[in-house]
Amino acid sequence: MAEDFEPKIVGFLCNWCSYAGADLCGVSRYQYPTNIRVVRVMCSTRISPHMVLRILREGADGVILGGCHIGDCHYISGNYYTERRFEMMEKMIELAGLEPERIRLEWVSASEGERFSKVVSDFVSQIKKLGPSPVRNKPEVAKKLEGAENASKSFRMKALVSKEYNLLTKENVYEEMLDPERLRNLIEQAANDEYERSLILTLTQDKSLSVKDLSKIIDVPTDRVLEHIVALRQKNLIAMEHPDGFTPTYHAIIIGGE
Ligand code: FES
Question: 253 alpha carbon to ligand 1 midpoint, in Å?
Answer without folding.
Answer: 40
